[in-house]
Automatic annotation (TrEMBL), chain A:
It comes from Vicugna pacos. Residues 40-87 form the SERTA domain. Residues 133-156, 190-213 are annotated as: Disordered. The gene is SERTAD1. The lineage of its organism: Eukaryota, Metazoa, Chordata, Craniata, Vertebrata. This is SERTA domain-containing protein 1. Residues 146-156 have a biased composition (Low complexity). GO terms for cellular component: nucleus. Residues 194-209 have a biased composition (Basic and acidic residues).
From TrEMBL, chain B:
InterPro entries: PP2A_PR55, PP2A_PR55_CS, WD40/YVTN_repeat-like_dom_sf, WD40_repeat_dom_sf, WD40_rpt. SMART domains: WD40. The keyword Repeat applies. This is Serine/threonine-protein phosphatase 2A 55 kDa regulatory subunit B. Keywords: Repeat, WD repeat. Belongs to the phosphatase 2A regulatory subunit B family.
Amino acid sequence: MMLSKGLKRKREEEEEEKEALAVDAWWLEPGHPAVAQAPPAVASSSLFDLSVLKLHHSLRQSEPDLRHLVLVVNTLRRIQASMAPAATLPPVPSPPTAPGIADNLLASSDAALSASMASLLEDLSHIEGLSQAPQPLVDEGPPGRPSGAAPPSLGALDLLGPATGCLLDDGLEGLFEDIDTSMYDSEFWAPVSEGHKPSPEDGPGKEEAPELDEAELDYLMDVLVGTQALERPPGPGR
Amino acid sequence: MGEDTDTRKINHSFLRDHSYVTEADIISTVEFNHTGELLATGDKGGRVVIFQREPESKNAPHSQGEYDVYSTFQSHEPEFDYLKSLEIEEKINKIKWLPQQNAAHSLLSTNDKTIKLWKITERDKRPEGYNLKDEEGKLKDLSTVTSLQVPVLKPMDLMVEVSPRRVFANGHTYHINSISVNSDCETYMSADDLRINLWHLAITDRSFNIVDIKPANMEDLTEVITASEFHPHHCNLFVYSSSKGSLRLCDMRAAALCDKHSKLFEEPEDPSNRSFFSEIISSVSDVKFSHSGRYMLTRDYLTVKVWDLNMEARPIETYQVHDYLRSKLCSLYENDCIFDKFECAWNGSDSVIMTGAYNNFFRMFDRNTKRDVTLEASRESSKPRAVLKPRRVCVGGKRRRDDISVDSLDFTKKILHTAWHPAENIIAIAATNNLYIFQDKVNSDMHRGRGRTAFAGGCLKPGKKGFTATNHRKPTRLSALKFTSFIPGFNRAQSFPRH
């Protein structure tokens, strides 16, 4: 977490610098070429960061302003399309391998940006409780992921679906998807080494660094989301 | 309703620094009733204040029809949705008056989730002389009653009573942005970001969903509903606007669910003005039918547009509200000002349109002469009966003495809500927590001296399709409009209910 926060701060500083540039251009005559149409390379990058920040901020609201959110997302798509004209922009990202926006951004941006986006998504996932977020951090999706895995995909707007649905609207499932599971997340991460997970292979006194590989991540996420019952022992390495 | 002694809302007037604003006092909607006699305002604190126009008095010719506080009441309270752990704001998003059908006045007021029907009645007489009760209402000692009397209605100080008659709740998942009363006076509609519901004014436990643009997968959401209104004459027609700048005219006779529009009004994007913010600035923040019912007025971030219902391809008129902001869109995006939702208004004869801007400026456009004016709503420029001076924003080049430069505009002073009296040149402007009412002094003098030439009523006139009613009101010439202020910067926090 510390690392991601550091990354974010750095990104903000960088964005401030770029905004200063933008502000300077502001004072120029309207006819000035620098102002007329901001050079895509410079403006887009800071605009991109700004839009991502706005999106993040909007999603963090308990009840996001839908209009604001939709406009920011659409603007972000435009910016992203202009930054990477070669990359295809799928209108509907295919579930369940990756959320639409995050995936495209990662595909087309550099390592630093992708790392910060990843941390952003991780934060979002902890808040919203849709815990498939760690998935897009690694380029290869896990094989054999059941296609029926819980919420179909993680586009920014899908995070809204359950949260803004009401009892009348989405039924009982809508209620439970809303619950913040970040509390449970921390419980699962920490005491892994204490051997909470039953395993026929492990001895009680076995000491291991609490490394979790991808398969275990998958398993834990599925448990949290409710598609898996907590009976199957985790994979090798325990 | 009880008088408000809520100290939370009292703005201490000895604080000369006018930048101190109690958030609850920020005006969030302004609406004249159908005759213009009453003016209702709603604020962020869930309060509604109604002003009434004083009848013109020969004794005081200067206070010709000024507005005074008529009633104040708490319409909505903050609520907590325990299921979703969310607070529902009490801010009044919209007020719409019902056409008056008896001595009482009625209005609909709504916050994000719940619409309420309020009935406003006057009481100016009370019965006196009961046989069994004394003046305070206590039962009399029967031995003291020696004769019978008939209770008599005696005049009393006018009391305005407000009561909630209907509460239309649980109809909306998303935030309500508009309500509109149908010309049939029996139904009304309410619109949120994704759905529009039709209600019957007498029935609160159910509503009909007439528009639903929610996609099956929320991830596919790219457009929301931003405003909607019923046609003023045709009770089956209504229009709704979207965040992508399109208008959809729907006919309720065509289908129960009006997802398929009858007409789609959309202007193709201007390629020379294309930017990353094109969509945001095209988002329509308000749509209003003209009084005639033939046109629609829309407001997006930089322009107001007049659309002819018979032409879907593009608006018939486009007016630039503050085009000097076009080069500043990036900064306005950064500080979120680009998302501000300005309203727009027609004058009674549909010849002048008005909308707000920044720096407490508001703009008027004369459709006939194509002239426009920028005026300011502020304490300094609104001494009682002072004529408003036109303002100018300079963008470089020659600068006149009183011009404001673009860079010194105050973007925190935004005029989002404005209203125009249905018949006369009286306008109400909400500037944060202040309500300004301006009247066109010149025309009203004409009005008194030479008869009602400026505001004639409608008359029947033969036309190709038989008799049609035409509005013979003389179109207002903008140059003749000189607005004076007779309520200098009315500060709502000091308002008191009338009694």
